[in-house]
Each structure stands twice: as C-alpha cells, then as structure tokens.
Batch of 4 targets.
Target 1
Amino acid sequence: MLHELVRPLLEPAFTVGGTPTSWGEVLGFGTGVLTVWLVVRQHIANWGVGIVNVVILGLIFLDSGLYADASLQIVYVVLGLYGWWTWLYGGEGRTVRLVQRTAAAEWAGIAVGVVAATALMTWVLVEFTESTVPFWDALTTALSLAATYGQCRKLVESWILWITVDLIYVPLYAYKGLYLTGALYVIFLALCVAGLRAWRRDLTVRAAALPAAA
C-alpha cells in the first residue's frame, strides 16, 4: 500500500550528475521554498503549505533510509496545526501572536531538549535501523524540532536554529544523493538569513513605535 502511494513520487523527473531526481523532490523543492518565503513574511498560509511539504518529504526520506527525518515529518504535521492555531490566537488576549525574543530560561530548556533528544534518537537509530548517518540524522531532527517550536511561538532566534540545521543538511543530503533537496536547503539557508533580518527589523520597528505611542 505504502509502496504504491510512494512510487509516483519516486519516478525520476530528470537526472543530475548521473543521479535521478524524483518528482517528489521537485514537489518538495517548490512547496518548501514557498513555505519558508511565507514564514519570512509572517503569512499564516505557511502552515498549510508546510504540511503538504512535510508529507511529501517524509515519503522521500523514508525511501532514502533517513528514518528519523521521516518520523520527524509526522511531528511536523502536528506542530504545523499547533503553529497555525498559535499564530492566529496565541498572543496576549487571544490576538495574533507577535514576534518576540527567546528568554534565557527558554534557551536553556531548548538546549537540554536538543542534547537529550539527539542522544536518544542516535541510540534508537544505531540499535534498530540501518541508518548510515545516525548521529547527524538525530541531531538535525532534534534541532529541527526545536526550531519549529520557536517558529510556532514566533521567536526571532528560531531562525538561528534553522540556519544551523541547514548548514548540516546541505552536505548530508548531498551524501545521500538527494542533490535537489540539498540545493533546496541552500535556498532555505538564504531565506533563513532573510527571515532573521526581517523578524529582527520587525522587533526594532515595534520597539521604536512604543515611545511614540506612549
């Protein structure tokens, strides 16, 4: 059943350097770029497009043996629904959530969570899967979850986490022969830098407006 569902996505669309690029990668590329661009602009539609993107990529990762990344996409769907609700109603007084900075205690919690999750998932991948990159698969999974949590809460520093993840993902996907997906993450990296600048600018503009409002 799963194989029949995945097979059309795995059909080659074109070949890069002798390695076929699947239609799933092409669709993941397009929806992924659109998702991050919408996040940079703080557009609520990013969550719907993002859910479509992670479902497609999850099927590709499963076929490529990136088991933690494949499992991560299921969590992303849940977080996508949570982020959608939070951006609409998660602000003070049930208003639209605004961009904010990460508190020191929250940073500490994120760091502990990333270390613990990386250690646990590395062990699981080594013991129960044939993953050829257990540590890097686990680390990027843990960092991605932390970055998505920050994105749900509109934390400016979530972009720093995404930038870190992208710097690891690019060579990892190239190693796995997912060249188009690796190229996608190069674009993600540029968009994340733009997102960091845009959200910081939003904070600066709001801070400058407060004295005037007072």
Note: The chain is about 80% helix and 5% strand.
Target 2
Amino acid sequence: MAKLWQKEYSLDSLMEDFTVSNDYILDQDLVISDVLASIAHARGLNKIKILSDNELNDLEKGLKQIIELKENDNFPITKENEDCHTAIESYLTDKFGDVGKKIHTGRSRNDQVQTALRIWMREFSVKLTLETAKLGKILLDFSETYKNIPMPGRTHMQIAMPSSVGLWASSFAEEFLDEAKRVENFIDILDQSPLGSAASYGVPLALDRAYTAEQMGFKKVQKNVLYSNNSRGKFEAMLLDLCDYIALTCSKLAQDLILFTLPEFGYFSLPKELCTGSSIMPQKKNPDGLELARSRSSVVSSTAFRVKSIIRSLPSGYNRDFQDTKEPLLVGTKATWSLVAIMAKMTEKVEVHEENLVKACVSDLYATDEVLERVKKGENFRDTYKSVGLNLDDVKTYDPYQTIKNRSSIGTTNNLCIDENNEYAKSVINESLNKMTQLKSAYKNLCEKEIEVVNI
C-alpha cells in the first residue's frame, strides 16, 4: 500500500530514511493498542452511518486477525509502511478492498498515534504501579523479618547513630510505595481519549467521541482537540519523570547493597546466581546487576530530559518532531520495568549476616545516645555534647539490641509502622489489579478475547 500521505511523486530515499528512521521497528509495541483503537473508531463510524454493519463486521474481523498474527509474531512492519498504522490499513485493504480504505475516515495519523500511545501508556502505568508496589511489599516483608537486627546508621558514609536492618529496608519500602501511588494518581491524567481530535482541529463529522472513549475503556474524553495534540510528548515526559523517580530509588538501593555486600562490610551477601564473574580473575563474584542498575537509572533520566527537550519550543498544533518522542518513551519505560524487576529479585535473595552487623556497632555509634542519657538526668544538651565530643574514648558500647527498643517514636527502630504500610501497599496493589481488570474487560468487548497490550 502507498504511504498514508502519498503524493504524485516518489520520496527521495535519503529523505525516507531520515523521516522514517526506526519508527517502523518501534511500532511493533503499538500494534495491539492501535488495533483496539481502530475497532473503537470503526464502531464510531458505524454509529454515524459512515460504515455499514457489513463493513464494520469485515473491519472488525480483519483487525482481530491482526491481533492473532501479532501474538504469533507474524505481523511484519516494513520501512515502506513507515509505521504500524499504515501496515494495519494496508492489511485491511488487501483483505477487504475499498472497505479497508474507509477505516481512516475522520482520523488523522496524529490522533491515531496519540490514541495507540495513550492506551499503551495507560496499561504500562497500571502495571508499573503494581510492580513497584510489590517491590515495596517485598521490602516491608524483609523489614519485618529483620526488624530486630542492629545496624550502624551512617551519615557522610561515617558511623552515625544506631539503626536496624528493618529501618533501612522499610525506608525504601515506603519510598517505593509513595512512588507507586504517584504513578497510580497519574493514571487519572492519562485516562482520557484523544481519538477524534484528528490533526489538532477535529473534523466536520458528527463523531461521537464519548462513545469511542467508552469503547476503549477511557474514563473520559480529552475535550479540547488542540490540547489533545499539545499533550503529545507532555504526557510521555510526565510518565518518564515518574519512572525517573523510581529509577533513582532503585539506584540508591543498588548502591547500598553494593557497599553493604563488600567483604569489608559483610553486612549482607548476594547469592552466587545473582553475581557474574571476571574474565581474568577466577575468584570474582561481581554484583554487576546492581552496578548496571545504577547505570540504567541514568538511562531513564536521560529519556525524560530528551522528550522535554524535543517538545520545549514547539508551536501549537502537530509537528513532526513528536515522532522522536516515541523512542525515549519506550526505552525509558522498559528500562524502568527491568530495574524494578531486578531489584525485586535482588532484595528477595539478600542474605543478612547478623554477627557482622552487631560487630560493626562500635562505641562511637552511641555518642549521641550517651549525650541524651545525661540530658535525661538533668544536664543541658550543649555542654554535655561538648564533653562527650572531647572524650569519645570514654563512650561505652551500649547493648545494640536495647538501643533498637529505646527508639519508639513513629518511624524509628521500635515503631516502624509496618502494619500501616502493609495496608498502604495492599490498597495500591488492589487498586492496580482492579484497574487492570477494567482494562481487560474493555479490550474483551472490542476483540472478544483476553488480551494485554503491554508485553515487556
């Protein structure tokens, strides 16, 4: 099939390479979401009598066939197609002739791309919320298991104050849960349909945008058609920013695990199946997964910045620049997904060495405790602080287990609020599962089978 924008001339081959780039490869991820949107669009055209019932049946049949082909990895998209949208229309035209040529009525490739991306991002966000909350739950379970094991707290990487393995783990648990909740909240922004906005200004057809939005399981229509266009790239950047925060937390967790599994620390260790080796040093078991987690977090950061840089100075209305936001979106979201998965596996399998942790609780760790013990007996804080600081050799080593029990205010070692955080995790997880069930129901209404659009 000719290009969707075909003219009376052939495009220069260099210009074709430049304008198409790798879009046709990236679009393999969007075939299913585009098909679902196309079914909804065809039903909308049928509703306003642009398509007959028979034409609608043919188009739905063909679109469902494309889903089957895609699921069997048998739906090729070529550079000549430019993207999945042309490939889909070409398939329908080859199968059903002129009927296939009607599917694009009232639709620009712009709102077609927008809608496919919106469906993909919406499901990805639901799944990322779920997996990030599950990672938080893994860390809460870890915290519960090891809540009574002492651990030196550090500031500036130096011995600071008494802490516990439970406090360390639950700090990351709460952080991941908050980040999962932020993604969950963002789904309300994503969950609006741009279909029917065309190339930014709508069309002179009585498209029922609310009807097609409902067909695709969207909560509402993105009303202003120009805003629908102008949100392209913006919504991608917002999602990537959320991914970036998750990636930053993964990086910090990875850095801690790298440090604390060093033989010089010996607080934790990783099972050998999560370590790699050296090509020259036979003794090495390297935490390469954790090191790459640090690196991959910067990949996510770069994609968020890249999208914002592309859209920063664009005027209103569609501009081809938007095409270049697709790659960073897919790269950044997939990198985040891998980060969450690998950190979940790493955390589940960390081994804790209690003896080494207790041994690391040296007397300097209790300098502040010593000051506060004297304050409780009536001394003033500032003079006592100076006295202890000038006589650190006299600070005794406290019972590390008792120091955990001595801290009982909210969020400290003897009051980690794990039960409350478990309820928090449960609510986020359940909300995500419910949302995924709603999406699957909408998909089944469109294609009569259980299906997911995000497979990474």
Note: The chain has a mean pLDDT of 93.
Target 3
Amino acid sequence: MASEVDNLISDFSRFYILTILYEKPAHGYSIISKFRKRLEREISPSLVYPFLKQLEQKGLVKHTVKPVGEKERKVFELTEEGRELCTKLFKRFANLISVAIEPSLEICAHCGCKVYEGGYHEAIDGKETTFCCKHCAAAYKQEKNLVGKTLR
C-alpha cells in the first residue's frame, strides 16, 4: 500500500512539475524551490531531473543553457507539443476535480454561479437561501419585492 501511495505522490509531483513549466521556463533548482514553497513538500532532485530528461527525450521539453546568477543553468521550456499535452491533462484534471467537488457546491439564488465554500446565507421567507455575496442577496430581495408588487 505504501508503494501505491508513493507512486501516486510521485505522479502528482510530475503533474505539478508540468504546471510549473506551463507557467514559464524554469531551471531544475527553481522547480524544486517553487514546488517546496507552494506545496510545502519536499521533492527529490532524483525525481525532477530524470523526469525533465524523459520529457526532453519525448520532445515535450527543450532546454537552453543560460546564466543564472554566477552559474550557468539548463532552463527548461515546454515545446508546443508539451503545452498541448499540458492543456489536455489540465482539462482532465479539472473534470476530475469537478466531479469530486460537485456535491459540495451550492448555487447562488440570484446569479446562478456555483459557490464552493462560504458564500453568503440569509433567511428569506423563513428559508435559508444561499448567495455568492451580500450584493446578490440584496439584488435578489429587491427583485423579489419589485416582482411581488407588480403581481398584486
């Protein structure tokens, strides 16, 4: 079981390396630093550098040697094919996340946007009503009052 979890974490780490490269070109140490800072997790150079080499061999990444401070470093950049792959992966990942959070979403009674966390709740006509913000709640109540007056 531990091996499966390690593989899952490793695959997620690779996915996240791609997201860092999708943002902009980066050298290996920069990828490791961003990973550590954003996810508050350590990542081993023995995962990062072989993965970058694999991506390069598959034509998904290319590198150039550039001076960074006093040293020269390989700066890795996604190729067009690499960017297309990332876009496909991001869409798949977004669909997975959507399925996972859909049951937790509430819908704003005024504008219809999906509210994942928090939102603004107010009792209207004795019923708890969800809004994305207090402005939508005010607009909803105003429209409800206007509609109610025109129907009388």
Note: The mean pLDDT is 87.
Target 4
Amino acid sequence: MFELKVVRERRPGYGSARRVATSREVYDAFRERFAPLDREEFLVVPLGGKNQILGFHVVSVGTLTASLVHPREVYKIALLANAAAVIVVHNHPSGDPTPSAEDVAITRRLREAGELLGVSLLDHVVIGDERYISFADDGIL
C-alpha cells in the first residue's frame, strides 16, 4: 500500500500571489536561483488556471553541459499540483543561453506529452549570464 501526499512549501515569492504572463517574468523569478550554479538544473514550474506559480520542482541536476530530463518526471509534479499548465526552466552555466539540439528535442517531447495529459507546456526558458532565451517568444514552441 502506498500513500501519496503533496506538501506545499511556502517560500517567499512563490505561490498564488505571483503570476507570470511573460518570459521576462519567468527569467526575473528564477535568475537569482541559477546565478551561483556551476552545473545545469532543470526545473518545472506548475501553474494554476490564471498562470499563478504553484511552486517549482528540480527535475534534474546535471553536469556543466547537460541534464537528463524525462517527461514522466516533469508531468508527475504537474499532475500532483493539479496544474493547468507548466513552464520549464533551466540554466546554461556557460553563460550562453542558446538552446542546444537536446534542448529543442526535449521541449518537443514535453509538448507532445503535455498534449496527451491535458497540461499545456507554455514555455521553456533557458537562463544564461544576464540574458535568457524563450522557446515561446522565439517560435520554437
């Protein structure tokens, strides 16, 4: 027998009070978190029906140049949080937020998985040094 509970952490800046409408707002919400990191981290940000941030979850901690991500891990959190949509965010410790071929491939897989589950992938934001790339803004998503 298993029992599953979702426990919401109350962190400053996250929760029902903070909404995101643009990729810049996503960047502003997470850039300080990524600034000191020396390896890639991949986060999922589940959103409520009005794009309020319900929290965030570290899906993967990788190396200097890569991070393993599986759609199952991204959408598990989204489903547990009763999210209407998700945004994924990761950093490039090199400072250059230009998406890699792997970044594009996982974004396509995540979009397809989200469509099957009824949880929209709204954006994939890659954060570098003082700049970012948005897959939605750039028409990749």
Note: The longest strand covers residues 120-127.
